[in-house]
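Title: Comparing notes on inverse folding

I've been comparing how different people in this forum approach sequence design from structure. To keep things fair, I'm posting one structure and asking everyone to reply with a full sequence. Here's the target:
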């Protein structure tokens, strides 16, 4: 990926990991397994420029460059091994899926070595089904033992099933909808999020949290979503506090329009990398 600037794992602060797997998706749209390759490809095509034989990146306007190592792609059955190495080295993973169920495996792996996680979950869907588990719609159920609900939050939710609404109420999980952002304004929402979060902040970002007008290439698009500027602003503010990891899931390149969604995913990764403060790992 163009944001990777070191081949040395040991000297890196952040590690990019591709997980090209959609084996636990029930979506009618297929192709999220193509996302790690496509996002990397587009990052090099559209976020980097060659002049006089030298490569120059189109960097975020604010923030500082971090040491980033791209470890390549790993299979789902290697998650525990690879992430164990990353966490043991006190590095911060930026993961590219793949379907959203991958998040549950990453967080379950983190739970073996970390205190409970403050989860920031960007998604159009709560993924809080509990009648069926171990798939992309039961992520929150599958990680309940590894997250601190009272310091976690969901952002962008707009199409919950009744079972999910019941679980949200049962566990007192805070949810911010696109309508909440329209009503209260993005700065107040950012403050609400900051006041909610504790230590060990992990961001999981399903690209369908963004309105399909900005991100059409996702596996389950839902109208009335976040705009890309608001999403970036919230990510910047969260990253400034310090994070222990992030994933970006459900980009579906085969349904994209002129690689618009893959390019936005690349820019999201860059903004988080450049905005990130010290990890708040406990």
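Reply #1:
Here's my take.
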């Amino acid at each position: 990926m163009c944001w990777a600037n070191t081949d040395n794992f040991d000297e890196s602060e952040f590690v990019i990991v591709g997980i090209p797997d959609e084996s636990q998706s029930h979506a009618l749209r297929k192709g999220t397994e193509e996302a790690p390759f496509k996002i990397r490809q587009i990052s090099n095509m559209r976020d980097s420029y060659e002049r006089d034989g030298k490569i120059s990146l189109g960097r975020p306007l604010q923030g500082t460059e971090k040491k980033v190592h791209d470890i390549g792609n790993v299979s789902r059955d290697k998650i525990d091994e690879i992430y164990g190495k990353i966490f043991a080295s006190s590095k911060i993973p930026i993961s590219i899926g793949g379907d959203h169920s991958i998040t549950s495996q990453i967080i379950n792996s983190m739970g073996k070595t970390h205190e409970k996680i403050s989860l920031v979950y960007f998604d159009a869907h709560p993924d809080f089904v509990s009648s069926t588990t171990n798939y992309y719609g039961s992520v929150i159920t599958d990680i309940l033992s590894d997250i601190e609900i009272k310091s976690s939050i969901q952002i962008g939710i707009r199409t919950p099933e009744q079972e999910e609404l019941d679980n949200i109420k049962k566990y007192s999980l805070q949810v911010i909808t696109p309508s909440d952002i329209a009503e209260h304004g993005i700065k107040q929402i950012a403050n609400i999020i900051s006041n909610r979060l504790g230590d060990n902040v992990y961001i999981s970002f399903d690209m369908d949290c963004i309105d399909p007008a900005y991100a059409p290439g996702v596996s389950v698009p839902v109208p009335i979503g976040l705009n890309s500027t608001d999403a970036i602003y919230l990510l910047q503010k969260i990253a400034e506090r310090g994070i222990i990891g992030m994933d970006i899931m459900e980009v579906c390149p085969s349904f994209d329009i002129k690689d618009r969604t893959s390019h936005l995913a690349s820019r999201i990764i860059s903004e988080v990398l450049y905005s990130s403060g010290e990890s708040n790992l406990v």
